[in-house]
Task: inverse folding
């Protein structure tokens, strides 16, 4: 399938589950941050499972091709990667915020560490190179401080953010052979993009990446967005993908 669509990282949790006002005032929390959850601790795990099903259903309704669940990514390294594949996952993605933020250490051992984590992976693997949540990190550089080096990684797919930063897509040519998970939704903008806007963001990359190696996704996790905005953005993305598959470019 050309231009499959997916998520990167998180999706908004229901208001009955999480205190969004508290969430907005802090860095990305771990599941054990009890003060964020509205549900009695005795029912929290059940509520989180129910919310996961709602997130999966929202992705199905929006028409995404590759469904994800906002919980299996954060520390999926080494044995956890193998466990995820053993449990039936088709794709495992690592969320990596430090390669971009600390380029010198990244050049020294970043790829080596990633390759060690993925060396026994039994399926398709991806690495998301993160600029940070848009709700917290508003200003983005126009380019990654560490990206071409990932061409030497074992990861099959590289997930990058291009919408908010306006990234020059020519750098993608350095990742020859990798599938690119292309961030095409600006999560710093509460306005729902049109399908035409998303389409234009995809087309910028096509001179540098073959269509068969492009996956459409948000820039990063959607945790901080209102649910209606997040869903609307997914709809715009799937509409753009449909037009691309039908050869109806901008």
Result:
């Amino acid at each position: 399938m050309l231009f499959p669509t997916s998520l990167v990282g998180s999706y908004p949790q229901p208001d009955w589950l999480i205190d969004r006002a508290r969430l907005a005032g802090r860095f990305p929390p771990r599941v054990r941050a009890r003060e964020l959850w509205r549900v009695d601790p005795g029912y929290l795990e059940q509520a989180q499972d129910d919310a996961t099903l709602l997130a999966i259903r929202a992705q199905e309704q929006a028409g995404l091709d590759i469904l994800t669940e906002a919980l299996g990514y954060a520390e999926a390294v080494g044995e956890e990667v193998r466990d995820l594949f053993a449990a039936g996952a088709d794709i495992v993605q690592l969320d990596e915020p430090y390669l971009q933020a600390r380029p010198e250490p990244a050049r020294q051992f970043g790829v080596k560490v990633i390759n060690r984590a993925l060396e026994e992976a039994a399926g398709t693997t991806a690495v998301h190179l993160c600029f940070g949540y848009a709700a917290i990190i508003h200003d983005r550089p126009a380019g990654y401080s560490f990206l071409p080096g990932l061409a030497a990684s074992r990861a099959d797919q590289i997930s990058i953010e291009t919408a908010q930063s306006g990234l020059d897509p020519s750098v993608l040519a350095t990742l020859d052979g990798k599938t690119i998970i292309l961030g095409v939704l600006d999560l710093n903008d509460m306005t729902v993009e049109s399908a035409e806007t998303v389409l234009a963001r995809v087309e910028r990359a096509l001179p540098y990446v073959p269509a068969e190696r492009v996956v459409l996704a948000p820039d990063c996790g959607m945790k901080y967005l209102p649910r209606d905005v997040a869903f609307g953005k997914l709809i715009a993305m799937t509409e753009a993908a449909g037009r691309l598959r039908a050869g109806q470019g901008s």
Summary: The longest strand covers residues 91-96. The domain at 63-245 is CATH 3.20.20.210 (TIM Barrel). Confidence is low (pLDDT under 50) at residues 71-76.
